[in-house]
Amino acid sequence: MPLIDIWKAGELHDKRVQQILGFAGEGTLRDGNAASVEFRAFLAHVPSDNLMAYAAQCLERPFSESGLALQDIINQLGKRLGFLVEPGRYRGTRNETGFDGLWRTKQGEAIIVEVKTTDAYRLSLDVAANYRKSLIRGGAIEEERSSILYVVGRHDTGDLEAKFVALVTRGISELSALMRSFASYVLRRNSLPKRRWIEFVTF
After folding, report:
1. Which residue would you say has higher pLDDT here, 49 or 168?
2. Is the pTM value of this prediction over 0.85?
3. What is the spatial distance between Cα 15 and Cα 4, in angstroms, rounded to a whole number?
4. Residue 188 burial (CB count, 10 A)
5. By the 8 A CB rule, do 72 and 31 touch?
6. What Rg do the C-alpha atoms of the chain give, in angstroms?
7. How many CB atoms lie within 10 A of CB 9?
8. Which of 20, 40, 44 is nearest to 30 (CA)?
9. Residue 162: half-sphere exposure toward Cβ, Cα within 13 Å
10. Do the Cβ atoms of 120 and 154 come closer than 8 Å?
11. C-alpha count within 13 angstroms, C-beta hemisphere, residue 28
């Protein structure tokens, strides 16, 4: 039975996101599999309060696929903020660009989204920069109308912030604040005299 039908029957309302994934398809998230399709459809159906709770669970009690689940949750938030969202791959391959999400505005702006549960591990900004270059070369996005947005779940070490600081929201646990930060980010992009092409949000 699809996750949405189980939800409508009232059987998932008290379940944690890790438990919910166990009911989806094969029970593990893989690129293009039934579990991924079902989970993304389920996230599109549930209230925003549940999305916030699921994201918090991915961060507070990590599990083997918490990063992949968080990626899907953040992309769903992008849709609810009015972006046209192309979900990325869970795991990169040699022949496909491995971004976590590609968000577009109706005005033609493109944002390559990278989702990280924490900044505790050293991350190379070159990876996302190369994703952007690849998409530009392929004609999928325009150089002057594209940027990168890092969404960092836990602000543990400040490694990313030490490398490049743009938009940062500190000490916030509720995902509603992240949504406000996204909205603020979009509004600010068109008013900055000289736009930077990497932005950060932590929640």
Report:
1. 49
2. no
3. 13
4. 13
5. no
6. 17
7. 10
8. 40
9. 11
10. yes
11. 2
| Residues 90-111, mean pLDDT to the nearest whole number | 84
What are the backbone angles phi and psi of residue 43, rounded to the nearest 5°?
Answer: -60, -35
Alpha helices in the chain, H assignment, sequence order: 3-8, 17-23, 34-45, 48-60, 66-80, 125-137, 159-163, 175-189
State the architecture of 82-202 in CATH terms. 3-Layer(aba) Sandwich (3.40)
- Find out whether 96 and 191 touch, Cβ atoms under 8 Å: no
What residues have CB less than 8 Å from 181, skipping those under 6 apart? 167, 169, 201, 203
Instruction: Round to the nearest angstrom and report the end-to-end CA distance of the chain.
Output: 34
Q: Does the pLDDT of residue 17 top 80, yes or no? A: yes
Per-domain residue ranges of the chain: 82-202
Residue 80 to residue 48: CA distance in whole angstroms:
9
